[in-house]
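task queued by scheduler; priority normal; single chain, no ligands, no partner chains; default sampling; output format set to structure tokens
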Amino acid sequence: MRKSLGLVALLVMFSSVSLAGSGDSSQVKQVESLLRKKLPNLRFDRVEPSPIKGLYEIHAGSNIIYVDPQVEHLVFGAIYNLQGKNLTDEKKKQLFRQLADEMARTFPVRSAVHIVGSKKPTVFLVADPDCPYSRELLKFLLSRNVDFFVIFADMRRNSYPHILYILSNKDRRKAIEEVVSGKLDDEADVQKVLKSASEANKEETKRLLGKWNQWMRKYSIRGVPFAVIPRNQQVVQGFRREVFESLYPFDISKLNLSDAPVIVGSGSGKKIVVVTDPTCPFCKRACNALRHLAKEGKATFYVYLFPIHGDFSMKYIADIMNSPKGERALLLERFFEGKASPSGEPMTPEAEKEFQKQLQVINKLGVTGTPTFFSWPDGKKIVGANVRAVENLVKGGNK
């Protein structure tokens, strides 16, 4: 509110308020000169006339700051027209698109690692293989078979040896998978990489890191992951899962439902994929309310187990996974009804192997909370204990 009032107060200074035309280029140059003189530490790209005559906008990356001709006042706020349209926001979106275009044009694709995939649009990515968020994004892109170019940043203790390992391998996709999985995180493995790499590979890795760092400095990229999606004119800072999920949705129709660790129902009726935690109170409420649909043959639930509550959840999940598959649905039901307690027995190696596979499915589905429901095969998603929404989903079709 203060920012908006500050903008109004400044506009009162101008006796003539109207939409700007082409603007006086000499005045723009004068404002630029005053800015550099009075605010030498302010980094900006250009100055343009704003939508209001007598007021100028400073473009600092994707940010917009307004200034008067004498550079006596800076205003942080938004300009609206009489129709309620946010002109500042529209200009920021334009600047973001322009920035994405420029970054895509200058991205060092020739030296970048190209992971060829079938899913488009192609991503231009900056990542540190030791950054946990970079690892999650790389895992996601690889699991979705996305086509992407990646350059690496050396920001952490073991980033350099891991980048060296990737660049020294002929199969770079496999090398990235090994690094982001944590397979080479032990100090002994790190030292082995450093000792086994040739001097030529070390020099080439340092050269590329220097080249890539120059590009990063040009655009003031200080955090990773950082992605540019040229076809969409989009810049994405950090691993914003919802953005990438919308770009590369998982095709749930490719799931082999018979592989689900728990199947509730006879296979008849509407097929619903469920991600649940046997210790989640919301899962308990929803699943207890929906179980009648399976008993009545109106739906079959294909259940994947997600340990939202960590070790506490794993005690229950271990018992379920250790049980014969035909008995798991009943045990899950007893846990939800409070009629059974976990035994405390660890998961068997065979059960652990099956459990890890179903965790991979959960990761592909992009689930971060329980319960989450998906209709099969169309993939319509319902998050949370929305019993009515699931019931309506079942009523909508029994294929």
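post-processing summary
- The radius of gyration is 28 Å.
- The chain is about 45% helix and 15% strand.
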